[in-house]
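Morning, I've got a small favour to ask if you have a moment. It would help a lot if you went through both lines with me. I owe you a coffee for this, so here goes:
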Amino acid sequence: MKRLISALLCMVSFFCFSQLNNVSAATSTSTSSLPTYSHVYLKAGPYYILYTHPTAPFVDQNDRLLIPLRTFDELFGGSVSYQASNKTAEVIWQGHAFKFVVGSEKAEVDGKTFSMDTKPVIKDGSISLPIRLFLNTTNLKYHWDSVLRVLVLDDESILVGKPFMDFKGNDLYPKNIDNVLQVENYTIKKSQDGNFQLNLTAKNKSGNDIPAGKADIHPLVSYGKVFGGFATDSYSRPNYPAISEVKSGEEVTISQNFPLQDVEYIITVARILS
């Protein structure tokens, strides 16, 4: 049985500013690209990656996961560039040089040509790249959960992006248990007051009941240089109101409000407080 916990909160925002690289075909973040519904396909360390401007990670018609080019730079510590004239993207990451062309199944890694089973595409004005070639040619630790349909990047050395740093810098609950709550999907509902409601649904996959007050689902929204900073519920406490007991195999949904301005990244943890 799915239970809805409504936590429509006034968000505590922490602001800091950083300079962004212009590397996508679209040079600004539009909130119109925020999905109304999305499955969650990507997890990096303890963080579920919900949205990566200008589009959420998605699975294409060939059942392959693609993510926006800028994600490799702004989240995972790579260096990227894009040439609109020939629709070519280059990524320097994990000690390798990658080159992709929109619409081509051929790609280069360190000057050698590889064939892929899908193609880079332009979506929402920006190039998105198949992540499989990166995983096949680097030493990153990862696993694909075919049942839950989520790619988990287990190598936390890549967690260098500002959203991760903002989360860590304000997390008062570093001691917790991960891989118990699985974030399955989310919905976004925009309102006329300049905010949006984020509804996150997670499933208890632990095999045990989670006692009331122990489950913690904490999203963070990172903004671009126009709006600046990030927004998250206060880390001085777990979810408020506290999440009630989550039976084994059951789903729980939480809701929070955020400013609808220049949204660049949305990440979340889903864990048990120890």
